[in-house]
Amino acid sequence: MPPRSKIYDLPQDLREELNERLVSTGFQGYDGLTQWLEERGFKLSRSAVHRYGQDLQEEFEEAMGDVRKTTELARAMATNQEDESGHLIDATARIVQDQLLRISIAMRKAEDDPAKAAKQLGSVTRALAEIGRVSLGQKKWARELRLEVAREAAEAAEGAMASQGMTRESIDAIKRDILGIA
């Protein structure tokens, strides 16, 4: 395992500003970024900043790819059908869960202080739990909606079948089929 990057020894606010500068410059200008860090009292090699920038760029491009996929999925769902079964929420939840897992791995690599890492991991865990609650709630809502639609269809069918002179036994059997009752 390679040694931990000195970039992770920077104060968090400075590292966040470095991340912003890397993204805003299109992951270029490493000489200027090295000089900027030195002006703030941190002497790092250009190659250390470049390696860190390359890793951040990979993560950034992967995250942007996920965003594009989710956006395309949302467009397809909106134009093709109502998302009653929750495919969009499920897909989004999977992407967010994947990102939270990556964040927790990155935090574990970046943090030397176990107490701080545990606190951050607690935040990630709460986010995962919230995603689970949203997904379960949506699935429950979709199940209830399908049941309500089936009930309405069964009632409408019952009226139509009764007016056609079907027996009560036949009507009840068809209603059970519509409602999915064995």
From TrEMBL:
<protein>
    <recommendedName>
        <fullName>DUF3486 family protein</fullName>
    </recommendedName>
</protein>
<dbReference type="InterPro" id="IPR021874">
    <property type="entry name" value="Phage_Mu_Gp27"/>
</dbReference>
<dbReference type="Pfam" id="PF11985">
    <property type="entry name" value="Phage_Mu_Gp27"/>
</dbReference>
